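Here is one chain, start to finish.
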Amino acid sequence: MTLNLGWFSSGKDESARVLLSSILKKKDDGMLDIMVKFVFCNWEEGEEPQHPDYAQRQKFFQLVRELGIPLITLSWKRFRDSLKIGTKDEWRAAYGEMIRTLLEGSPFDLGILAGYNLWIDRDTRTMFNMLNLYPSLPGGPLGTEQEVISQVITQRAGRHGTMILLCTPEQEEGIPLSCCSFPLHIPEYKPLWEQFDASMGKRTLETISKDLVEESAVFRRIRNDAKARESPLLAYTIRMLAEGDVKIINRRIHEGDSMIKNARDLTAAVDQAIANKDF
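Its structure:
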């Protein structure tokens, strides 16, 4: 049976477009029996042309139109500023209620947060199954992509990767559903680590600047290797759910009659897809 998806994205960069187009390509190739019912964005077309992400968002909107997918937008900034509500939780709840109102005519089985840079309110997490693509591994560092990779570097982690979380009413970040990883201390990385260590000089990891870390070649390589795995991880996870290998029951992940406690490690499948240039 076709799995109906609701796609949520802020459309801020190229990876947002790559994720959407790659999943639709796998649908066309016959890998995924899905239908993307709509794309929701928390920015509106033409909003804040001076914003550094504006051009990327316009490209994202154009892609959605070219794919023939209904586009639904609601500016979180304009909505927040239009309300006379004192607390953050109150206007977030009101924003979530408005989103749900806008989506009433577009029922979906599974929401995909792919490059969606805004929180999802508790009521929405309670009412819908939502998957969040997160730039870390289970038990790994928390934060933005930049913050996570910076911690991976300063901690000299052995591996890095990406996971997909099932959002729950208790946690927006959610429960790990699937993940994939790659090694960081292999021959290809050795000169990058050496270059990074040389740039540090005699400074300790605690005293080096954020810019030094984020501008390093090892940071860029880790980020690129992680980005390359996002599309195949998302595709294999969606297929896993579409084919019933795992099921979401009452906002919990089940395999057969048992609740899954650990994320399904899809590293082998993702690595093979990258080696075959399937994505």
